[in-house]
Structure formats: structure tokens, C-alpha cells
Amino acid sequence: MASVSGVGLSWSLKVSRMPSSVSSQSRTSSRRVVKMAVSVENKPKSFTLQKSEEAFSAAKELMPGGVNSPVRAFKSVGGQPVVMDSVKGAYMWDIDGNKYIDYVGSWGPAIIGHADEEVLAALAETMKKGTSFGAPCLLENVLAEMVISAVPSVEMVRFVNSGTEACMGAIRLARAFTRRPKIIKFEGCYHGHADPFLVKAGSGVATLGLPDSPGVPRGSTIDTLTSPYNDISTVQRLFEQHQGEIAAVILEPVVGNSGFIAPKPDFHNALCQITKENGALFIFDEVMTGFRLAYGGAQEYFGITPDLTTLGKIIGGGLPVGAYGGRRGIMEMVAPAGPMYQAGTLSGNPLAMTAGIKTLERLKQPGTYEYLNKITGDLIQGILDAGKKAGHELCGGYISGMFGFFFTEGPVYNFEDAKKSDTAKFARFYRGMLEQGVYFAPSQFEAGFTSLAHTPEDIQQTIAAAEKVFQRI
Ligand SMILES: Cc1ncc(COP(=O)(O)O)c(C=O)c1O
């Protein structure tokens, strides 16, 4: 596994280059060929996004902002999003026929590679029996057993349909169990779009420059307290100010939704202790880190046992899923075993269970996390070295198949530090990489993901592309 020294954003590099001027997105009206934000002499001649542009123009009339999830809209990197046609392994193809090495992986689920043959075959078999029963099915038992035996703190699990639902359920459960109203979350951590979490929520919210969302009543967030990430003294102070009122502390054990930010060595332990001393629950939101940092998630990786854990993404193998789980004594509060209500029409549906089971079976094989760690380490080191050589201020880190880099000297310990990044430069880098056939998350404030399908050649090709792009941004 990665030593966390790779993580502390230790490669900080000095800048001396002036950014080249960036042309805003424009288009030639006759041919409707998109000009990218970066002026690129070596731009591959074949790279156009004509069909993408047409499709996205149509989409904007049909769906708000042309997308069904905001960060996909490329708002923070300029230009328009690429409309995808298909995915396989480590690659995506857009509707103009351009191929990309993909480091988004559908925002995390695609850890064994997109459209894996075994997953597809298993789904085809399951589908013969139907797509949704709305009644118990054996596949739920299988995935539940896999999750329980993998994730150290989970003795019972409830499947839902998204990470948002998982976090909503976990917070309701913590409040029900402790009979207390308040929660502490960390600035820049995202726990889905439920009302109580839309306070300093990083990611898409930060990307759009919205401090919070209109439509969230004050009553829904009044019990949400916030602290900077990696800041124990603020958490301590909040517990002193709100004695007997705090139900839970929830966090991303490694932040992905402000870009990649690792915890300081003692951070989790201190939180564990403070919550225990104060009768509050400690919740690891492992929607992103679960089965990604290690088979048992961040809690296995860091050796921490939270009271509750939320999961999503990977455990659905690319189908909609979420889950929350924890100690039996807490989980038995959930209806119908207990009084805390939570339900879902499609929860535990056989397709999501099948894709999850097949994905976890693959991840469990020996050497998977070592491989992810190796290629991700090579990737981030190569990118940072290339940036340094070109004179850019850059820092970054990784653990297993999760990574990130910021256009700032660092170190980055929290969202305020992350916001020091040169986001305009990130946008130029982003568009340049896209033209070179590399698809990163379209925001400085998102982590990247590798998969078992990425080859060492993909990594070298990405580094070579970064070398070119760093030279001219
Ligand atoms: C840590 C974390 N929690 C919760 C969520 C919400 O999950 P979903 O988008 O499936 O609702 C996300 C989504 O990216 C996430 O990264």
C-alpha cells in the first residue's frame, strides 16, 4: 500500500512561467468545430467535437444546463462537455469518435474497468430473471455478506440507491440512536445533496461558486456545524459549545470532493476519541473511498473503526447503489427491525447487486490494490515531475487508486488551502489534456481515479501528454 508520505502534498514546485493567454471558447459558425480553450500547435488534426457540440446544444434545451449532474457541465474548465458514446476498460469514446484514457471512471465505480466482460455476462444472466423484484432476493444476501466481511465496522448493512441516500440514512440513524439533533461535517466534504449536507459542501457546489443552495431551508441546516478538515481544535470547541447535542461527526476519510486531500496522521484517531468521549457517533463516508483505498476501504487502510459507514459507487459496479452499515446494536434501529424509517422501491435490486458482487469478487483477488497503488504512484509522480520541469507550482498525492494534484505550491490540508489553486491554469491544462486524449475530472476540486484496466502504457502516454501540455499553458 502507498505510504502516506506520498500523500502529504510533498512535491511542491516553484513557478516562474507566465500563463499563456487563454482564448475563451469560440466556434466557427459554418463548420461548428469547437475551438478549445488552449491554443495548441501540436493539436491532433483529427480532434473535433462537432457532434458533441450539437448534442450538447440540444441537451441544454431539454435538461437544466444540459446535464443530469452539475459537474459534468465543464463550467469550471470552460468550453462544453464531451458527449460520450461508449466505454470499455480504461477508455471512453465520444460521439465524434475521439478516444480518451479515462481517469474519472464514472466518478469512482469503474475500478475494475468499464464494461467488464464478467460483469456484463453476469448482468445478462440476472436480467433473464427480471430487473426488479420489490421483494427479498438472494443476491442481496450475497452482497451484504461480502460487504460485512470486508468492511471492519459493518455488522449489518442497508442497501439504498445512491450515496446521497446512504448519507441521509446514516445521519437520520445517528440522530435516532443518540436522540441528539446536531452533526459536524467538514468544509469541502460532500455527502450527497440532501439538505442538511449542503453547507460548505465542496465539489459541484464549489465548482459552481455557490456558497450553499437556494431552496435549502435554514431549518434544515441549523443543526449542521462545520469545521475545516484536519482541524481538531475546532471540532473540540464545537463539542464544548454544544454539549450533549451532537449526534455525529461525518467525514470523507480521504477527501475527494475538494480535490484529493489526505488526513493528517492523527486526525481520524483524534475524531474517534472525541466522539467516543462525548457520546456521539463517528461516521466514515466511504462512498468514494470504500473498496478503493483497500478492500476494506479507508477504515482498513488507516486502521480506524467508525460507528457507521456509508458506501456507494464501487459496490454497485456501475449501477445505481448506496449502502449504510455499522454495529448491529445501532443498525437494529432501522425499520422494520426498529423505529427509524427509511425505504426504497428499487433498493437491493438484482442488477445492482449482481454488478456489485462481480466487481468485489475481482477486487478481492491478490495484488489488485498493489497494482492500483503502483500505477497511480507512477502517474502522479510523472505528472508532478513534468509540471516541475516546465516551471509550474504544483502539489499532489495519491493512495491506491485515488489521486489528485493542485496548481498551488501546497501543502493542502483543507478546502481553504485547495482554493489557493490557480484554477484558470488548471482549466488550460484540462483542455490541453482532453485534446491529447486524456479525460480527467473537469474541476480542480475533484479527485481522479485509476482502475485495474489502466496499463503502464496508458500511464506513460498520459505523462507524455502532460509534458506537452505543461510546456504551453
Ligand atoms: C464522499 C461522497 N459521499 C456521497 C456522495 C453522493 O453519492 P451519489 O452521487 O451517489 O448520491 C458522493 C458522490 O460523489 C461522494 O463522493
From TrEMBL:
E.C. number: 5.4.3.8
InterPro entries from the UniProt entry: 4pyrrol_synth_GluAld_NH2Trfase (IPR004639), Aminotrans_3 (IPR005814), Aminotrans_3_PPA_site (IPR049704), PyrdxlP-dep_Trfase (IPR015424), PyrdxlP-dep_Trfase_major (IPR015421), PyrdxlP-dep_Trfase_small (IPR015422)
GO biological process: one example: porphyrin-containing compound biosynthetic process
Name recorded for this polypeptide: glutamate-1-semialdehyde 2,1-aminomutase
Database matches in Pfam families: Aminotran_3
Transmembrane keyword on record: no
Keywords: Aminotransferase, Isomerase, Porphyrin biosynthesis, Pyridoxal phosphate, Transferase
Gene3D superfamilies per UniProt: Aspartate Aminotransferase, domain 1, Type I PLP-dependent aspartate aminotransferase-like (Major domain)
Organism: Dillenia turbinata
GO cellular component, one term: chloroplast
Required co-factors: pyridoxal 5'-phosphate
Catalytic activity: (S)-4-amino-5-oxopentanoate = 5-aminolevulinate
Class of the enzyme per the UniProt entry, highest EC level: isomerase
Family in the record: Belongs to the class-III pyridoxal-phosphate-dependent aminotransferase family. HemL subfamily.
Annotated HAMAP family: HemL_aminotrans_3
Subunit structure: Homodimer.
Keyword Isomerase: yes
MF (Gene Ontology): glutamate-1-semialdehyde 2,1-aminomutase activity; pyridoxal phosphate binding; transaminase activity
Upper lineage: Eukaryota, Viridiplantae, Streptophyta, Embryophyta, Tracheophyta
NCBIfam families in UniProt: hemL, PRK00062.1
Highest rank taxon of the organism: Eukaryota
Pathway this chain belongs to: Porphyrin-containing compound metabolism; protoporphyrin-IX biosynthesis; 5-aminolevulinate from L-glutamyl-tRNA(Glu): step 2/2; Porphyrin-containing compound metabolism; chlorophyll biosynthesis
